[in-house]
């Protein structure tokens, strides 16, 4: 039963990992940008959350939508003013730009928020547990799981059934040719990055709820996001969800076997999956 | 009467390489014009230049009186120029119907609706929810044309419709052009197949190595003369 509990907890934390990856998958899938500053945006969103919790006296979970909206705007402006200048056939310039951006963001966050670990004060909810089929699960991780999976489902419906979603998918396929249908692909990139970062915003806030963040937490999250995206298959949404859940389970199972292993076991699993399925879960048939 | 589209001294470049050398071209409202020429003559480049996909260009392109030479491609499509691109270019993540619906992105009012397109190409009705890359080349070509029509264009640019298709399928697709003409849309056909192009068009331009080598009405010249101009002067026997 204890093992089952570990696996279920792995799924719960894995949903958050999946959300880290979702944003990265979306930026890559539509704008073909590898955003090296992805982790910093996750952490920045966490800090924005921490700041707002101090200002607005409502429950922190209710602030998640507000942070999503704020970071959506940041993402759109970022793409339209900065990233669109360097997008093109060569994938290196956007990578270098976001790499520089990650360093700037890290230092700016140290300046503004300090380097001490901080978290969002969840009151009693943080350590509240509940009994499910004889297992003891944290209430907060279950809530985070539900929100994460809901965001996946919401994004799925948005991309599949709305005109904007259709345009984003077409832009990911053929950015040049969507222009023939009245689409400004640079603006489509802007919407994609805005959506991607708002997913990271939700992830960052919930990360700050379940554990602590510092301006330096971004690097590890970026690594997780990349592993999730690559396990799932580049640009695939559902691949990212499964990839995140696999990493979450191996992480906690690994820590149970060997408490000092850190991210070693997820990395090994990542390596094995990549060897067997170089195109990731969603691309293994091709 | 001013032409619908007019290019004067149009030159297009790929980096240091020049593909078009000063093309003067015009097409009137409702007219069908063929542009014929061999592989690499610059036909696709010409269409891409008009649609705004090639941006390295000199000279002027005027559409309905407006200079669109430097206009962004998405705005050109909103003005009413549609391109059926070479190789059809499906959006693989989208179904057949979603590909067609992309045509509505220009927000142009007009006679063409999704229902009309299905009436024009009944073969698409039963595969509307299929993946656009798992259908035949002929069906893809119908999607590409239908998608362009849904933008309700004043000018339809068609790049090598017959490429890679069986003659019977090509016939079926060409048969629909009379209906498109009837809707008042001007059509520009790029073709390697001289006979087919001359049958469909009111006028033709022959393109040779980035320059116009001959232009006029097909009936005034005959296939023999046109094909000589197609391949350049010299040996032309048995090639058409």
TrEMBL record, chain A:
<keyword id="KW-0812">Transmembrane</keyword>
<feature type="transmembrane region" description="Helical">
    <location>
        <begin position="228"/>
        <end position="250"/>
    </location>
</feature>
<feature type="transmembrane region" description="Helical">
    <location>
        <begin position="64"/>
        <end position="83"/>
    </location>
</feature>
<dbReference type="GO" id="GO:0005886">
    <property type="term" value="C:plasma membrane"/>
</dbReference>
<keyword id="KW-0029">Amino-acid transport</keyword>
<feature type="transmembrane region" description="Helical">
    <location>
        <begin position="188"/>
        <end position="208"/>
    </location>
</feature>
<keyword id="KW-0472">Membrane</keyword>
<comment type="similarity">
    <text>Belongs to the binding-protein-dependent transport system permease family. LivHM subfamily.</text>
</comment>
<dbReference type="GO" id="GO:0006865">
    <property type="term" value="P:amino acid transport"/>
</dbReference>
<dbReference type="InterPro" id="IPR052157">
    <property type="entry name" value="BCAA_transport_permease"/>
</dbReference>
<dbReference type="InterPro" id="IPR001851">
    <property type="entry name" value="ABC_transp_permease"/>
</dbReference>
<feature type="transmembrane region" description="Helical">
    <location>
        <begin position="135"/>
        <end position="159"/>
    </location>
</feature>
<feature type="transmembrane region" description="Helical">
    <location>
        <begin position="6"/>
        <end position="29"/>
    </location>
</feature>
<feature type="transmembrane region" description="Helical">
    <location>
        <begin position="41"/>
        <end position="58"/>
    </location>
</feature>
<keyword id="KW-1003">Cell membrane</keyword>
<dbReference type="Pfam" id="PF02653">
    <property type="entry name" value="BPD_transp_2"/>
</dbReference>
<keyword id="KW-1133">Transmembrane helix</keyword>
<protein>
    <submittedName>
        <fullName>Branched-chain amino acid transport system permease protein</fullName>
    </submittedName>
</protein>
<feature type="transmembrane region" description="Helical">
    <location>
        <begin position="262"/>
        <end position="281"/>
    </location>
</feature>
<dbReference type="GO" id="GO:0022857">
    <property type="term" value="F:transmembrane transporter activity"/>
</dbReference>
<keyword id="KW-0813">Transport</keyword>
TrEMBL record, chain B:
<dbReference type="Pfam" id="PF00005">
    <property type="entry name" value="ABC_tran"/>
</dbReference>
<dbReference type="GO" id="GO:0015807">
    <property type="term" value="P:L-amino acid transport"/>
</dbReference>
<protein>
    <submittedName>
        <fullName>Branched-chain amino acid transport system ATP-binding protein</fullName>
    </submittedName>
</protein>
<keyword id="KW-0547">Nucleotide-binding</keyword>
<keyword id="KW-0067">ATP-binding</keyword>
<dbReference type="GO" id="GO:0016887">
    <property type="term" value="F:ATP hydrolysis activity"/>
</dbReference>
<dbReference type="InterPro" id="IPR052156">
    <property type="entry name" value="BCAA_Transport_ATP-bd_LivF"/>
</dbReference>
<dbReference type="InterPro" id="IPR003439">
    <property type="entry name" value="ABC_transporter-like_ATP-bd"/>
</dbReference>
<dbReference type="InterPro" id="IPR003593">
    <property type="entry name" value="AAA+_ATPase"/>
</dbReference>
<dbReference type="InterPro" id="IPR017871">
    <property type="entry name" value="ABC_transporter-like_CS"/>
</dbReference>
<feature type="domain" description="ABC transporter">
    <location>
        <begin position="5"/>
        <end position="234"/>
    </location>
</feature>
<dbReference type="GO" id="GO:0005524">
    <property type="term" value="F:ATP binding"/>
</dbReference>
<dbReference type="GO" id="GO:0015658">
    <property type="term" value="F:branched-chain amino acid transmembrane transporter activity"/>
</dbReference>
<keyword id="KW-0813">Transport</keyword>
<keyword id="KW-0029">Amino-acid transport</keyword>
<dbReference type="InterPro" id="IPR027417">
    <property type="entry name" value="P-loop_NTPase"/>
</dbReference>
<comment type="similarity">
    <text>Belongs to the ABC transporter superfamily.</text>
</comment>
